[in-house]
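Bug: token stream looks shifted between consecutive jobs. Job 1:
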Amino acid sequence: MFEVKELSRLHQDYLASFLRSQITTMQNVLDSVENSEEYDDAYLAESMKRVERDIRRFRRIYNN
């Protein structure tokens, strides 16, 4: 079962900023794939790894 937590304004702003950053990265990856006949595999792989790593780190912080 999920626990519902009340967020302070500071935490809410931090969470929104973090999510916006991840969305921006993912949007850049999507644009790269959709708007190009050729795309950089290394860029895609590194971007995806970074998003995954950041989300894992963020989850650990908020679960503690």
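Job 2, same session, no restart:
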Amino acid sequence: MKQNNANSSKVDVSYELYRELAGEICAPIDDNNMTFDLRYELYTSKLTYLLNIQEQCFRCINLPSDTHSYTKDDLLVIQDAIEITKQFIRQTILEALIQSLNTATKKNLYASRNSTCT
């Protein structure tokens, strides 16, 4: 019995944190002046949090008791946030690749100009 109380207490804490962050979980991270590596790490950390909270939400919704913290609407919000966060991760990777390719192209162009001048 005590273990069940501890688990429901743990869910309540995570639910309180979720409710505090619920309005922001779909929003992009403020990434001004941030490297692509840091931005990627922050989004993957956010995705890990969302996947964990999704699992807790799913378990809570499917418990046989009536003392649920999470609702099916919460699950939908969390699932939307997961998909949006995956899109932000893909966008970060794409931007990093484009910048890397642009840098490589510029270096090759500079190198070819220098080799024809000498």
